[in-house]
Amino acid sequence: xxxxxxxxxxxxxxxxxxxxxxxxxxxxxxxxxxxxxxxxxxxxxxxxxxxxxxxxxxxxxxxxxxxxxxxxxxxxxxxxxxxxxxxxxxxxxxxxxxxxxxxxxxxxxxxxxxxxxxxxxxxxxxxxxxxxxxxxxxxxxxxxxxxxxxxxxxxxxxxxxxxxxxxxxxxxxxxxxxxxxxxxxxxxxxxxxxxxxxxxxxxxxxxxxxxxxxxxxxxxxxxxxxxxxxxxxxx
Length: 235
Hints:
The chain has one domain (4-234): Orthogonal Bundle (MetI-like fold). 80% of the residues lie in helices and 0% in strands. It has ten helices and no strands. The longest helix is centred in the middle third of the chain and has 37 residues, at 100-136. It is globular. Belongs to the binding-protein-dependent transport system permease family. Residues 26-222 form the ABC transmembrane type-1 domain. It is found in: Cell membrane.
């Protein structure tokens, strides 16, 4: 077990020197999380837009379910994906368990409801302002969805960044379906958990530093998008 001062110093050296193992873990983390965020946005944004502009029986129940799914327990999602991808599961023949693809699937399932629910709120508020104009232009449902998504692109980019922030910090689901295999499925969060349990605090702290920097970067990007949106609103 390393003492705190020694571990911190070694962690800074690993970060500043660009340690190969550290960079490999960070690169895989970004690959998995960005891929999951992209897929979640492809699913969540149209779904959120559709619910935002539609009125149908049971819509209140749909909204309750959408909001509830934002709090999906990661370990439950990991377990469900594991059962489907395991050798005895319905998708076991694909051989995806303990691969980055399985981790992307788990993260996509986790953050797609977040993207859908947040985008629904944004687009519903905007639709209430544009509804009369859409009716006067005789726009169809798909055209209205496209117009809303484009006009709300800055706010929806913030939603996407929130989804990415949730994905990159995830550990429960990815460790179940990914297995934390060195040089294959080890990402920042799972590596931090493993290295801490081993008492190798230097790499854990180095990864923690990188994760904090990414979190700060995401928050800075969100703030930048909001400021840019505010400037465009006044133009």
